[in-house]
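Final report, Chapter 2: Outcomes

The project's central promise was a pipeline that accepts a single protein chain and returns its three-dimensional structure in a standardized token representation, suitable for archiving and comparison. That pipeline is now operational. To close this chapter, we reproduce one record exactly as it appears in the project archive, with the input sequence first and the structure output second.
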Amino acid sequence: MENPYVPNLAVIKDVKDLTFDTKLFMLSFKDKNVEEKFSYKPGQFAVISVLKEGECPISIASSLTRNKYPEFAIKKMGKVTTAMHNLETGDVVGIRGPYGNGFPVEEWVNKNIVLIGGGIGQAPLRSVTHYILDNRKKYGDMHIIHGAKSQNDLVFKNELFEMERMEDVNVYLSIDKEEEGWDRFVGFVPDNLLEVKPSPKNAVAVTCGPPVMINLVIKNLLKMGFKDEQIYTTLEMRMKCGIGKCGRCNIGSIYVCKDGPMFSYKQLKGLQGER
């Protein structure tokens, strides 16, 4: 029986600077049999490990519809993420996973999609964005509302600028304060959402970002007529094992790493009494 805690080794195939403190890592498994079997859904995560430094859960920021190599947008925040930032192409890391439930993209077919992100929250949303773009005929209108503190903090900025020019995608970017050369919305993401005001009719809204932003976005979505079951978000808990064994992320009978981290707002409301 295989030990679920033993990671598979992967080589850093490519590294790109996204912002001053965030990098995008493309990983390739050393064992090609593992690479062929490695399959994941938009919104799932993996546990990345660096030798002698530890491991941490990271959202997968890519879609299998576009690239067989998983990509991870990693912000420099703690011991493990700092160690990742010190690595280069050709270095080896460990991967466990994929874990979590992912977004129910199959259930969203023929619906209008509204993606609302802030900061590094764009990483899991990118996996959804690429999946929908690569299956464009299956979905309705697509709105992407994303913001950051400043232009220098915008993750995947160039990709978002490119999508602004697409005819079948509506992109609305924002930064918190005015800056020279910025001609888009200035203000917080929840305010930009009210400005855009996407219709709740036959729509699904997905939001990822800082907890304060998520709370305000959900409140505004409800004001705009979105129902609880139309809103999806992530639940941030301290995940450790990734497989529902250590109990670090449980809420009652629910384990966020296994049963989440993606939940509808209707599900989250049901969990509030178990906190």
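Archive annotation: The helical segments are 32-37, 79-85, 122-134, 157-164, 189-196, 211-223, 256-259, 265-271.
This record, like all others produced under the grant, will remain available to the consortium after the project formally closes.
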